[in-house]
Structure formats: C-alpha cells, structure tokens
Design brief:
Blueprint lengths: L3 E4 L15 H14 L3 E5 L5 H11 L6 E7 L2 H9 L4 E7 L2 H8 L3 H17 L3 E7 L6 H13 L4 E6 L6 H15 L3 E5 L6 H10 L4 E4 L13 H10 L15 H12 L16 E2 L2 H9 L17 E2 L7 H9 L7 H16 L6 H12 L8 E11 L2 E11 L2 E8 L3 H16 L2 E10 L8 E9 L4 E8 L2 H27 L1
Helix pairs in contact: 1-2, 1-10, 5-6, 6-7, 7-8, 8-9, 11-12, 13-14, 15-16
Length: 504
C-alpha cells in the first residue's frame, strides 16, 4: 500500500513557539521537502499576513513536483486568500468538539455543520481540491463526527482529515474513528496527530493500519506544544517495521538526516540527542557489550542501518566502554596499541568516567598519546600563517595560510567577528579539498583575571556525516579557536584518509 506524506512543517511546524520564517526561508525548506519526496506541502496560512501570502505565492509558483496546499478556515475570505496565493488545493477546517464549539466558536453543532458544508461548496466552486478537517476530532461526539464527515463528502470534499488536535487519542480510538470516517465518506482519509502524550506517530500508524491513506507530519516533529507526528519516525516505521501489510512512501530515506539538520538550523530548534532516527545519539554506542556486538554485527544493537537515513554510526568511550570499542575508535586514527597498552588506556578512561566526565575522542587520543609515548596523531594540515584585523566601523577580516600535504593554500574572508572571519577563511580552504563544515563551536573561560585562559571546543563534520571534536586552551580567543579547528580538521582528514586506504 502506498501511503501519502502530507508535510505541514511550514504551517503547523511554524506554529512552534519561537519559530517565525521569512518567505525566502519557507521557499528554501519547501525545495528540501520536495527533494525528500513528500507528496504534499502545506505551505502556510495565506490569510494571516502579507508575508505568509507572499511565501505561499513563491512556493506555489516554484514548479515543485509535489502538491502545494494552504490552510483556510471555513469562510470565503480565507479561501479567496488561498486562491490569490496561486493555490489549487486548500485544507479547510472548523472545530467540532463541544468544548471548542461552546468556548471558542460560540456555535451549535448545526451551525458548525452548515459552515463546513458552505466552505467545501465554495472551495469547489473556485475550482479547488478541498481537504476538510474536523478540528479536535478525537474529542468530538463520535456520531456527530460521522455526520459532519458524511455531509462534507456529499458537498464535494475530495479528502477528509482527522486531527488529534491536543494529542488526546489512543491508537485504539484513532483506529475506530478512522474506520468511521472511511465508512461515512468513502473518501481518502488523512490523520493529523499531535504528540502531547508521546503517541503521535503511534496514532498516525494506527490510522494507516485500518485504511487511512495519508498522514500529516513535520520534520523533527516540530509543532505547537509537544509537536506533531515526525516525518522521519513515521516514514521509517512504515518502511522498516514488520507489519503484515507492506507499506511504501515516496520518501527518499537517505535524505532524511540532511533535511532534518537543514530544518533544525533554519528554525533554530536543536534536535534532542535521543530523538529517534535523527538525534545525535540514535546511532551512537558506549556500552562495552553494545559496541562489541555492533562491531561484530551492527544489527545486534541497531534496528536499521544508519546509512539508510543518511547517517553514520559512532562509538564513544566512557565508564561503560569495552576494549573492543575503544580500540576501534583509536584505529580510525591509525593508532594500534598493544594489549597491555589498551588496558592502560581503558583504565584511565574508566577513572575519568567514574568522575562524571565526558570522554570525547579528544581526551581519548590524549590518553593514548601519553601511554604510547607519542606526541600526537599525524598532522596532515599545518597552520603556517594567520592574522586578523578588526576595528570600529569595519567588518572583521582574516588571512589564513595552511599547508596541506605539502601544498600551501591561502584564503581571506570577512565575518561578524574576528573568530567568525577566521573560521570562514579556513572553511574556504577546506572546501577546495574536502567538504568539511564546523558543526558546533563552544567557548568557556577556565580562569579569571586579565590573563584568563579560554577553552574552545569544536566539532567538525564531513559531507558523509562523520564528525570529530577538538579542543584547545589559550589566552587569545581567536588564536585558540583557529588551533582547535585545525586540530579537528586534521582528525577528520586522517580518518578519511585511513578509510580510503582500507577501501582501496
């Protein structure tokens, strides 16, 4: 069975507190969603502002391969705004639960029914495809819900949507009212589930299992309050879980992680580390038992291959670490300690872990270097020249000269500050030889006074999603930042070089 993916990141997702997107940002995300393979994009709520109308016009005229819809209340003004936005598809809604009718709309059930029918008929008279939603459907009287769905179907609605507006439903109840809607309308039915009790994806899947053909979802599950059903969890559950019936979507799963990161960056909301599929820890392992199993056969502790969603697995050492996982991490940097040296390294790792410290690859390499008597890992990149200039009324400017495998490369760039300018110049150089980007940057003061030391921690990532961290301590923030970035670049390039040797 083919399941339709209706993405509402740009409408319901934007209703997340703290998110406000410009028309250009909306268009950029719409392009990403279209490339991902969604079947429909809810581009926005055209009537609410001039900027929203502009965004809808830009998206509807972009020539995307998916359908473009706009939200409209059950009135002519909203529907006309959708038409003015260049849309031929509306998602119109009215609340149907008694609590909404009494306290929000001040309407009777019959009045709400009349408004719903009028909106569908008017939308069809304007030549639109009409999807009708009974807002707060899961708290609506079940007989009235069946009645309103049946009547809008007679009025010409093309699709019916069941919104679990406050995430109040259970999978069992969603299944029951989905069957009601199918029986009452004989139309394609969608489910729109919110995550207030953490059941959005489970509820959406339940609706699909009894005959719904579509789910409304958002990237990273963003949305009002606790959010919406997340596209990545819903689509991968359909694709990978052992259901009796085989489900398919048009989602290009290998683009999921990239799309998730892109949306996260634009909307300014970081994905929680333990988020399924796209969280930083979704394919990360520390426990010695787990890492040993994963190294022998990844399926021992991973339900799917990370590459399926554009990810890479990663290992971390800590007090739960085992020798196999630790040695696998060291081998990524070309370090192969003896059995006795491995035990010494692991003992130090566990001591730090018992002290509550996070042990990144930075600390691990430092410990290994101490025990192996080495000064450090091989350096591919050398910083051979560096200067920054800044002042009042001028934009900070940086000059950087790197030697990479014996070849000198020079770049200059501007930035909002001297650190930003220096990092921009470095990224210009690395972009010529490898697609590297600075994923995270952290600055902390570790001593006080006029000669205070600062600690810079960065994370560098390549185009394949491999990432490494690096840390540097010094008196000057800019110089310390540059040194940390160079260390990170060395580590990720060494990793890449060793991987290429193994493949060749």
């Amino acid at each position: 069975m083919k399941v339709r993916i209706f993405d509402t990141t740009l409408r319901d997702g934007e209703q997340t507190p703290g998110i406000s997107l410009s028309p250009d940002q909306k268009l950029a995300i719409a392009r990403k969603l279209d490339a991902l393979g969604v079947d429909a994009i809810e581009a926005g709520f055209p009537v609410i502002s001039d900027g929203e109308l502009q965004a809808v016009k830009m998206i509807s005229s972009e020539g995307l391969s998916c359908e473009i819809a706009g939200l409209a209340r059950t009135n002519k003004k909203d529907i006309d705004a959708a038409v003015n936005g260049g849309l031929n598809y509306i998602h119109t809604f009215i609340a149907t639960s008694d609590i909404h009718l009494e306290h929000k709309l001040k309407m009777t059930r019959d009045q709400a029914l009349e408004k719903a029918i009028e909106a569908v008929e008017y939308g069809k008279s304007r030549g639109l495809q009409v999807e009708f939603s009974a807002e707060d459907a899961t708290r609506t009287d079940r007989d009235f819900l069946k009645k309103i769905f049946g009547e809008v179907a007679k009025a010409g609605a093309d699709r019916i949507d069941i919104p679990d507006t406050v995430g109040y439903s259970t999978p069992e109840y969603i299944a029951e009212i989905t069957k009601d809607a199918i029986e009452a309308t004989h139309l394609p039915v969608s489910v729109h589930c919110h995550n207030d009790f953490g059941l959005a994806v489970a509820n959406a899947l339940s609706g699909i299992h009894v005959g719904a053909q579509c789910a409304h979802v958002t990237i990273n599950g963003i949305g009002e309050r606790a959010g919406n059903a997340s596209l990545e969890e819903f689509s991968m559950a359909l694709q990978c879980l052992p259901y009796e019936q085989k489900y398919e979507t048009n989602i290009k799963s290998e683009l999921i992680y990239d799309t998730s990161r892109y949306v996260s960056k634009i909307v300014g909301i970081q994905v929680q580390p333990n988020k399924a599929i796209v969280g930083d820890n979704a394919f990360g392992h520390e426990s010695g038992i787990h890492t040993h199993g994963v190294l022998n056969n990844p399926l021992t502790y991973e339900p799917i291959s990370p590459e399926l969603v554009g990810r890479k697995r990663w290992l971390q050492v800590g007090k739960h670490a085992g020798i196999h996982g630790m040695n696998a991490m060291l081998e990524e940097y070309g370090i192969k300690p003896s059995e006795d040296q491995s035990k010494q390294i692991l003992d130090k790792v566990k001591i730090l872990g018992d002290q509550g410290k996070q042990i990144t690859d930075v600390e691990l390499l430092s410990i290994a270097s101490d025990i192996l008597g080495e000064k450090g890992i091989k350096r591919i990149v050398q910083l051979t020249g560096f200067s920054v200039s800044t002042g009042i009324g001028t934009m900070p400017y940086a000059f950087v000269k790197l030697n990479i495998d014996g070849k000198d490369l020079i770049e200059t760039d501007f930035g909002v500050g001297p650190v930003d300018a220096a990092l921009n110049a470095i990224q210009k150089i690395t972009g010529k030889i490898s697609e590297l980007r600075i994923k995270d940057y952290g600055l902390a003061s570790i001593s006080g006074g006029s000669t205070a030391l600062c600690e810079v921690t960065i994370s560098v990532e390549d185009a394949q999603g491999n990432s490494v961290s690096a840390k540097s301590v010094g008196e000057d923030i800019v110089t310390t930042s540059v040194q940390a970035v160079i260390d990170g670049i060395n580590r990720i390039m060494l990793k890449k070089m060793l991987n290429e040797k193994q493949l060749s």
